[in-house]
Amino acid sequence: MKLIDVIDVYLARQRSLGMRFESAGRLLHHFGRAVGERQIREVTPESVIDFLNGDKGLTATWALKHRVLSGLFRFAISRGYVDHSPLPAVLPNLPPQQTPYVYSTEELRRLLEATSTLRTGYSQHVPAMYRTMILQ
């Protein structure tokens, strides 16, 4: 069975279970285009790794792609479309998440004071839209 057909059957099943599966569907169709028109049994581990890595290497998107493809290949194995998954067996260590920056009270005060200089076109209401909190 062709890869794109398996993707369509998988998406139809997920949606029949009440899942929206929109972004995963786009990702799977992107995978189908990246791999090309071939049978699902012809998908190689190298083509999967190329898709996972993309042009940016290891990111949080890598983990998302892996999770979505894992679901597709579990489905394909359970239906007998393939015997094994071409996904990598050993997962790489992803870089740590970035620590969010927390503004100090003084930094927030300066940011809010700076909104008084904002002017967009003829509207004088724009600065008021940016002043959403009162600092004590």
From TrEMBL:
Kindly state which keywords UniProt assigns to this record, in alphabetical order: DNA-binding
Q: Does the keyword DNA-binding apply?
A: yes
InterPro entries the UniProt entry points to: DNA_brk_join_enz (IPR011010), Integrase_recombinase_N (IPR010998)
Top-rank taxon of the source lineage equals Bacteria
Q: What is this protein called?
A: Integrase
Species of origin:
Sinorhizobium psoraleae
